[in-house]
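Check out one such.
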Amino acid sequence: MNTAEIIQLENTLGAHNYKPLDVVLCKGAGVWVWDVEGKKYLDCLSAYSAVNQGHCHPKILAALIEQAQKLTLTSRAFRNDQLGLLYKELCELTNSHKMLPMNSGAEAVESAIKTVRKWGYEVKGVPEGQAEVIVCSENFHGRTLSIVSFSTDPKSRTGFGPFTPGFKVVPFGDSKALEEAITPNTVAFMVEPIQGEAGVIIPPAGYLKKARELCTQHNIILILDEIQTGLGRTGKLLAEEHEGIEADLTLVGKALSGGFYPVSAVLSNTEVMGVLQPGEHGSTFGGNPLGCAVARAAIKVLVEENMVENSAKMGAYFLGKLQKLNNPLIKEVRGRGLMIAVELSPEAGGARQYCYKLKDSGLLCKETHDHIIRIAPPLIITKDEVDWAAEKIAAVFAG
């Protein structure tokens, strides 16, 4: 089937809850993808950072095939030989005491909220039903009902109430507002180190460090949602490393499986994770042997092939080239590692049209918040490929 036929099928039979660019992809390798007509594109979105290791990485693929021929699912009613090894390898890599395996990023967020509430009641002594979690405006932590309950995006909330109580919203990057929002019933502060969906919004220097200090001072759990920023995207294994801090709970997903399989995890210290007892939380597929084998391979290649270091190097190079674009349509170029945003001026008339022009030039990226183009290629991108992409972007904005 050709592009038009497949799009027609989607429009007729699918729920209209996405607005993708009209390209139908059927193959991927490294930083490149191909559509059903055979056209080749440089992927500058990486499935929202789920394919940091590149499309169809051969070593992750081999691990998937090998494990799929042995054992795919046991549920957590029984133990499997892959989960313990993932516990060991991921905890050692991230300096974590405990790990709770789940599937999607949203499940990791929900798991963290449940865990810190229980910790608040059993350890901190918050009155039952009064636990508060502080979050930030313009956040994006997923799309479940509890998560959209504390979203400030009207599209995420409108028509989905009534909402889950127990959340306070403060401005992102504002330490004073965070401090003023804390009460004796506050159990956690959950924040993205860099807000991805909001348009790669980087907080002021020292913000996360101050948040860490406030959480320690007031006996509050610091939750860092590193589902997009983690595993090398910002040029560090975890974005918290840029400020030299450690969260109490760290959420990872997306690139944890290199794009092959849904795998996420809540990484925690023993005190917080220790409140969960048998039967209180779980997932049939969470920690399954297939997902664990894939995740083990995904983090192994991330480290062994120096993808984090390449992200830092190529990210700085890419950012530098884009910041040199002297065009009145571009308001700002910002980023950290290979997490970059090109924010357009109002005169540009919206970002989506430029995403289509870039697509026609062989480069795929996506708009966010109407006027921002997000650029986040796989972490394996080379200098020549960055040069090629930068030339395409420059040409599109030159008209």
Remarks:
- The chain has a mean pLDDT of 97.
- The radius of gyration is 21 Å.
